[in-house]
Every structure is written in C-alpha cells, then in structure tokens.
Amino acid sequence: MNSVRLSVSLVRKLESKEAVIGIVGLGYVGLPLVLRYAEVGYKVIGFDIDPTKVMKLAAGESYIRHISRARLESALSKNFEATTDFSRSREVDALILCVPTPLDDHREPDLSFVVGTVDSLLPYLREGQVMSLESTTYPGTTDEELFPRIESAGLKVGEDFFLVYSPEREDPGNNNFTTSSIPKVCGGYSSTCLDVGLALYSKVIDQLVPVSSTRAAEMTKLLENIHRAVNIGLVNEMKIVADRMEIDIHEVIRAAATKPFGFVPYYPGPGLGGHCIPIDPFYLTWKAREYGVSTRFIELAGEINASMPDYVIAKVTDALNRLRKSVNGSTILILGIAYKKNVDDMRESPSVVLMEKLRALGAQVSYNDPYVPVFPKLRGHAHFDLSSVPLTAESVASYDCVLLATDHDEYDYELIRVNAHMIVDTRGRYLEPAKSVVKA
Known about the structure:
Blueprint: H1 3-16, E1 20-24, H2 30-40, E2 43-47, H3 51-58, H4 69-78, E3 80-83, E4 94-97, H5 112-121, E5 129-133, H6 141-152, E6 161-165, E7 184-188, H7 191-201, E8 208-211, H8 214-244, H9 249-256, H10 280-289, H11 296-322, E9 331-335, H12 350-360, E10 364-368, H13 393-397, E11 401-404, H14 413-419, E12 423-425, E13 437-439
Parallel strand pairs: 1-2, 1-4, 2-3, 4-5, 5-6, 7-8, 9-10, 9-11, 11-12, 12-13
Antiparallel strand pairs: 6-7
C-alpha cells in the first residue's frame, strides 16, 4: 500500500473509532487518557512495566485518587485491558507514550524512560501505525531520538509510519478541566504525520491546536511550564522581601489580583513540586547550551524556587526559638506531603525535602495527609517509615510545631489553630495575625 493510501486508511480508522489505541505508561497522564478513549468507544490496550499496576487495573482497583473505581470498571467491562506484554503493540494502530522524563543527578535530561520504551516497542512496530510522544522534553527529542530509531526498524516516517508530538496538559485536582476540555497542541514530523495526529485526538479532545512541527510543540510545552516556574520564582522572592518589611505577601497578592488587566496572581509556597514545573525548565536550559545560549532568567528562577525549603527551615527555627526550643529534639508535624492540595501525587513534593532537612537537624518528624496514608518509596529521596497520624485536638497539641506545607481543603484549620503551640504557615492559609502563627 502506498504512503498516501496508508495515511488515508489510518485517518479513516481513527475517525471512525475502528482503530485500536495503545497507551504506554498508566500513570497520572496515561490512565485518564485510556479512560477517555474507552469512554468514546475505542478499543484500548494499556501498557506498563509495573505488574502491580496492571494487576490492580485488572481487578478494577484505581491507584489514582481522582479516578473512581466505577469509572475504571466501566471501561474494563467494555473495551479496555492492561498488560505488561509489549509484543501486543502489534495489535494497535496508535501508540501514545506517557512515560516519565525526570532529571538525572546532574540536573540534565534523563530520557531513559522514553528511549527504553521506544526500544522495547521497535521489534513490534509495523506499517500503518502512528506514534505520539506526550512526555515533556526538550525541542528536538522527537526528531533526534524517536525518528532514527523508528527508521532503523525499516519503516519510513511520514510514508508508512507516522510520528507526532502532543504534550500532555493534565492538572490533577483541578475539577474545572478534564482530559477532553483542555485544548491539545499537536505537531507532526511532516504534514502527513500531523494529519494523522489530529485524527488520533479528534474524537477525544474538544479543541486541537496544530503547530508546524514537533519542535514547535515541544517548545510550547516548555514555555507553558517555564512561564509558571519563573512567575512562582518572582512571587517567592517577593515573599522574602515582603517578610523582611513585615508586609503580608498574600494580602498584597489579593489586592493586586483585583486589577482586571495586566496581572495574573501566582502564589508563593515552600518550593516547587509536581512532575513538570520543577523539572521542565532545565530541559530547555540544557538544550540551549547546544546553541550557545545562556538561559539566565530561567536558571535564576530555578535557584530561587530551589532555595525556598531552606527559607522555610529558617522560619521553623525562628518559631521554635519563640518557644525556647531548638530544632534538634523538637517534635514537628508536617501537614500535607502531596505536592499540591487535594491530590495524592507526591512527585517532587517540597514537603519531602522539608522532612529530610528537619530530620537531618535532629527533629522528630511526623506527618498527616488525608490522601497519603503511608509514606511511599520515592526515587532520589530518603525513606521515612511513617504513616499519616490522626489529626485531632490532642495529636496537634502533642507537637512542638505544626508545619503547614500543603493546604488541603479537608483540614480543620480552626482546630489546628486553637490546639497548636506554634504553626509555620507556608501557604497563607491563616489570614489574621496571631502569636502562634509564623508566616513562611
């Protein structure tokens, strides 16, 4: 079959929902996408290297808080199955890669998950398939890493195999947007690849945003996240300045946000968390060096954001000094160890860094998080053999200091205020001045 007929045939299958969709990586990005495809009528095969995840899915058990068991069971009863067997990728017409892209120990891009996934799929790729990479990465990854690997398997990208980059835009815990309602950027290796990519997403996403190339799509994702990281860096620096001047930065932000144009509110915190914002700017920083460009603005924001845990530790030390106590030997309760409120996602959570630093200073650290009952094992971090302690008047009063790191809506903030000896508030949750509250 010639290339035109192959692309037309694949577009038809995708648009008629006759195509089988394969999604590789069944985490916070991949699993919601699986369910969306299944719910609109596609047959979906989910691939993951973690057999525990696959077994849980087969049993109808969701391991992501905002995905209900009922929604998962509905998909399983119709047209979704999960597997660790990558040879089954022969059965699918589309492969969507939703795998991690962390930084290594030198804060340089670690593409091992992306490259390893593609290498695992290579023996099973065939004519008439499309591959879409959704993982955040530097401009050029799709062309420089995926393209040559696919062609090494004897396939011609843009002719008998189609390649696109379409970055994920999931926001766990944000109930205002769903997988379908968030506009989706898509760039193809060629114009034919783009046509296939748009067909791939056309039935599951309300609005598609085509761009001229995979590189443009990759840069778009980085700009989105760098924009947020830089503005958070700015407001974190403003917080430190305002604190020295005895001004409440949260009051200032609330006042500034009343301006109906030219201002977007960003909020300070104990550091950056999540799988995107603390990591993605450094993908561009690394790639820019290849072109002899220094990304000083991005790196400065990164330095400020990375320094925030130390600022918070200084505030904890000050709070304990008011009680005539040292950090060494004090009991400290961390409230919230997820990276943002109302989710169970702990990736790159600044709370973990705070716990590590406090323990290293000799504090006895405990935590409460309604969404994380047991402290998990995390890549690149020390392990805490801890479970979430009950949050009662008695338990709060038993600690020397309560450190509010993640402001879940579920918390009874009045109970905490009344019973805590000292509160270090990194989220601006306590608006009124109080002797027992230290703003951090």
